[in-house]
Amino acid sequence: MGARNLYTPFELLELNMEDWTPRPLIYHFFEIIHIQEGTGVRVVNGNRFPYRPGSVFIFTPRDCRGFEIAQPTRFVTVRFSELFLGKEYGAEERERITGWLKQLEYILFNHNKHQPVLVQRVNDCKMMASLIANMMEEYRNRHQYYENNLQHYLTLLLNLIARNVEAASAVREPDGEAPLISRLITWIQQHIYYPEQLKLETMAARFNISVNYIGEFFKKQTGESIQQYIICYKLRLVELRVENSRLTIGEIADELGFSDESHMSRLFKKYYGVSPAAYRKQKKEGGRQPE
Asked: Which UniProt keywords apply (predicted)?
């Protein structure tokens, strides 16, 4: 294939190879891979996992990834960076991009990225194939507004992936309802931007548990308190924002409900050893490897 520049804001490739065995490399972009034909092994961070037609892989920056082809394989790779995520054309566009980032976060936090997402619904398979075909057409022709169209297509693609991630990860009780601890964690993740919904009183009422028992139950099931879980989850979102968006540190603190920027920075430094600003600088100065 040869060396190429992989650091443009967006890149879409259709690859058809009988044999491709480069050493796994660490890349600095998000990537969605949709296997269309063939079988083999996807090497991810030193782990080996089989793939087949219909498999979808989601990768974040710094994942070490590679392929080992067993049968002739054709796949589409959608690669995008924070530059593509961060294009802003005013308040309305920024709101849409923020919502899109939240959708991406949902996928990253709820999917074991070392396993393929198997799209089970027939209609979703058809829709995904159609979306990817439309994205390829837009990307090839690059007519006016093609970047905006690609963002919309990618949002829809992420929605489909998220729906299948949720369906695949939902472990049910005999009565068809997800376990209480799973429902509690899902509630926290879905309402992480709404502090009022994360109060013990609110959650206890929502799940019909006493206020005194909910904290004890959560710690027994997870090994940490609810507040500790909320803080760690928020800081993981801070990490993702700092590394993959153009939001200022103050804007990130405000969006995630910290009392102020200094409060968030102190917590971040406590857990990560550096301030958010220093962390962002480190990531920007990190080396990049060509393919």
From this structure: DNA-binding, Transcription, Transcription regulation
Element containing residue 225 per DSSP (H, E): none
Q: Is 7 helix (H, G, I), strand (E, B) or coil?
A: coil
- Structural domain including 278 reads 180-285
How many other C-beta atoms can be found within 10 angstroms of the C-beta atom of residue 245? 18
- H helix intervals, the chain: 82-85, 91-110, 122-141, 146-169, 180-190, 200-206, 211-222, 226-244, 249-255, 261-272, 276-285
Q: Is 17 found in the same domain as 147?
A: yes
- Return all residues near 28 (Cβ < 8 A) that are at least 6 apart: 7, 61, 62, 81, 286, 288
Q: CA of 119: how far to CAs of 4, 74, 165, in Å? A: 31, 17, 8
Per residue of the chain (291 residues), what is the pLDDT tens digit?
333 434 467 888 888 876 555 566 666 677 888 888 999 888 877 778 888 888 888 877 667 778 888 888 888 888 887 656 555 556 666 666 666 666 666 666 666 555 666 677 778 888 888 898 899 999 989 998 888 888 888 888 888 887 777 666 554 445 555 678 878 888 898 888 888 999 999 999 999 999 989 999 999 888 889 999 999 989 988 988 887 777 899 989 998 889 899 999 999 999 999 999 999 888 777 644 333
- Residues 202 and 81 both lie in one domain: no
User: Virtual CA dihedral for 161, 78, 156, 34, nearest 10 degrees?
Assistant: -40
Say which amino acid occupies 227: Q
Contact 245, 233 (CB under 8 A): no
- Check which CATH number belongs to the domain holding 209 and give it: 1.10.10.60
Beta-ladder partners of 37: 74
233 belongs to a structural domain: yes
In a domain, 99, yes or no: yes
CA 193 to chain CA mean position, Å: 17
Q: Do residues 266 and 165 share a domain?
A: no
